[in-house]
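Budget justification aside, the reviewers requested a transparent look at the raw inputs and outputs of the sequence design task funded under Objective 1. We therefore reproduce one unedited record. The lines immediately below are the structure tokens for a 311-residue chain.
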């Protein structure tokens, strides 16, 4: 059922998007172990579906079109943690039964767990009639993880700090991407750790300046120009991710040799994202990569953040 305008619902369905970082600059490691980053996020049409129903306890089941074997169904799961956090915040006595249908690759660098957390916040807020509003939900989202606020917001945004200080970016038109997923995930902390080691070894003195998004990226997003965006995409985690997964270099080359404007590692990888000039080129690229034996999906962005779906 949908949300009853007269009061809380008894079952809520929420859809939340995965993300691509079309630009990701990583600053020096901070004393607390985290890095300051500057990120340009785009929410894409690879989405997570979550259903929430009132129950006495907190529980979770997971299905999906991706391999969900590595997804914890206990309190390590970000969606369950989100539900408990919200319940604690509003003093809700009961629990919730969550079901997630996953389509974002697990540990793929596309923020699937963060999307689930954002979806759980929106769902429980509606289910329990909490009415925290977007700023209340955003505040809780930041406590759950750096990418959770963006999964709530969706669209196109610039993230600074740990990536969670968000400002909506002006964006026009639609960008077509072909996403190539990998069976084995990469751990985000491991990729950051490897980046630090690589930077230390090569004695790259990181400028103490605060990371910033290239103005060329903002301009390309503002006018909806895929060719211009391709000239400015960048991901500082890419070298570290490729060092841990050297096999991905060949896939990047194949995509770029098969019509992609550019290919990048998505977030901390190992998912690769290829930008196409238009939907037709994306389709051709998807076919070329699939024929070569890769799992290639055609997605587009920007799309909305976590939203209730009417059933
Ligand atoms: P991030 O970049 O935020 O680490 P990611 O997109 O690379 O995210 P996720 O799929 O979000 O990767 O999950 C990373 C790890 O988090 C998984 O390996 C899993 O152990 C754990 N996890 C916790 N909650 C979830 C969830 N709802 N879905 C998937 N993984 C989850």
């Amino acid at each position: 059922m949908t949300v009853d305008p007269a009061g809380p619902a008894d079952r809520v369905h929420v859809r939340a998007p995965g993300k691509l970082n079309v630009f990701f600059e990583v600053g020096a490691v901070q004393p607390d172990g985290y890095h300051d980053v500057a990120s340009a996020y785009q929410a894409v049409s690879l989405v997570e579906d979550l259903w929430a129903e009132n129950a006495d306890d907190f529980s979770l089941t997971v299905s999906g079109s991706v391999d969900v074997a590595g997804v914890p169904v206990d309190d390590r799961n970000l969606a369950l943690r989100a539900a408990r956090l919200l319940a604690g915040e509003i003093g809700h006595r009961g629990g919730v039964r969550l079901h997630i249908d996953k389509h974002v690759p697990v540990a793929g660098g596309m923020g699937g767990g963060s999307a689930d957390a954002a979806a759980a916040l929106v769902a429980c807020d509606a289910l329990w009639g909490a009415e925290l509003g977007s700023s209340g939900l955003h505040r809780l989202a930041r406590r759950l993880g750096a990418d959770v606020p963006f999964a709530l917001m969706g669209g196109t945004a610039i993230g600074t700090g740990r990536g969670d200080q968000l400002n909506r970016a002006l964006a026009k038109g639609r960008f077509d991407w072909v996403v190539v997923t990998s069976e084995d995930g990469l751990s985000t902390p491991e990729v950051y750790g490897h980046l630090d080691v690589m930077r230390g070894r090569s004695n790259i003195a990181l400028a103490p300046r605060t990371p910033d998004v290239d103005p060329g990226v903002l301009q390309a997003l503002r006018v909806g120009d895929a060719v211009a965006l391709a000239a400015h995409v960048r991901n500082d985690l890419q070298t570290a991710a490729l060092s841990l997964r050297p096999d991905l270099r060949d896939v990047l080359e194949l995509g770029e040799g098969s019509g992609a404007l550019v290919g990048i590692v998505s977030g901390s990888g190992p998912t690769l994202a290829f930008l196409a000039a238009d939907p037709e080129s994306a389709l051709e690229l998807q076919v070329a990569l699939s024929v070569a034996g890769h799992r290639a999906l055609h997605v587009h962005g920007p799309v909305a953040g976590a939203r209730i779906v009417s059933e």
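The chain is about 35% helix and 30% strand. Residues 112-127 form the longest helix (16 residues). Computational costs for records of this kind are itemized in the attached budget.
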